[in-house]
Amino acid sequence: MSCVQGWPEPIIRVQSLSDSGLDRIPDRYVKPLTERPVVESVVMDEDDKVDIPMIDLAGLFSGDSEIIRATREKVGEACRVWGFFQAVNHGVHPDLMDQARQTWRDFFHQPMEEKQKHANDPKTYEGYGSRLGVEKGAVLDWSDYYFLHYLPSNLKDHTKWPAQPPHHREVVEEYLGEVVKLGQRLMKVFSSNLGLEEDYLQNAFGGEDNGACLRVNFYPKCPQPDLTLGLSSHSDPGGLTILLPDHDVPGLQVRRGDKWITVKPAQHAFIINIGDQIQVLSNATYKSVEHRVIVNPNIERLSLALFYNPRGELLIEPAKELISPENPAMYQPMTFNEYRLYIRLKGPRGKSQVESLKSPR
Fold it and tell me: How far apart are CA 72 and CA 67, in angstroms?
């Protein structure tokens, strides 16, 4: 898949801006008033106790049919009501999670000339980047990132992965293999909860060689965090996102009605959310929910987002088993490659992408 050939303007690394010691952010990063993270908008109900659901996935492996059923129901409710949940006892070893996070932190603290060897472009986005979207003059987010492909296997190219720090590629390969297994387990749970065959969603994504890619987000310290965002409000265009957050530095916010809930990450938990493709396949039974990232004036933040996606060339449409005269198909068929071109051209734009694809009534 390709869009345009190059970035419309010279790329400025946000980490370099932060490291320069500036006390005001450039105008290019100042969000409109309606998009800024106002303090009142992040206050939670009930004395700051509201958070996304926390689910212990150990129940899925218990061998006890009642515990398995109860755990699946918790996952299903979270997908219908929140579109987000945190998962503990998910099967990925805590040491591997820590190693993956640390090796990427080490990458972002290498000299700029080393990171620049991996500079990306809009044709594939693979590599070291500092912006989404190619709209000239767009307001930018306060973050850098690294994007790479893992599945399908024909897209994985280790030469495009950082060779430094030492053993980086081996750690990332092992980590992604384990997180993909978690994604496969969750897809079975989602399918069963929707009343579909257990392998329905996985087959709709292309079987064992579905799409999977990693975006590592690096949010440098920001002198004016009330004026900007690390990542603008959006729903994820893919199928399912498995996020390894920085448990020491909260930053992810999830929209809940007209409020923004700041997620409190638990140590060695994954934050899991529904993407637009599962919203489409489930005919909106499961919801992809807007989220954004705020930044910190004193501490950098790093997170790893594994996007578990359909193969790019496959048509995605509501499951026929979920369509009836009383519940008609809400979305028109579209390939994932066509769908994600929107965000690659325009950048994150709330829920406008999936809403624009609703079938005319």
Answer: 9
Return the amino acid letter for 28. Answer: R
In a domain, 32, yes or no: yes
Degrees to nearest 5, angle at CA 76 with 216 and 230 = 25
Q: What is the pLDDT of residues 239-285, one digit of tens each?
A: 999 999 998 999 999 999 889 999 999 999 999 999 999 999 999 99
- Which sign, positive or negative, has the C-alpha torsion 50, 93, 278, 192? negative
Does the pLDDT value for residue 353 go beyond 60? no
φ, ψ (nearest 5 deg) of residue 64: -95, 115
Containing structural domain, residue 208: 14-355
Look at the chain and report how many structural domains it folds into: 1
Q: Classify burial at 190, counting beta carbons within 10 Å of its beta carbon; exposed 0-12, middle 13-18, buried 19 or more.
A: buried
**pTM more than 0.90:** yes
- The reply to whether 360 falls in a domain is no
Does 42 fall in a domain?
yes
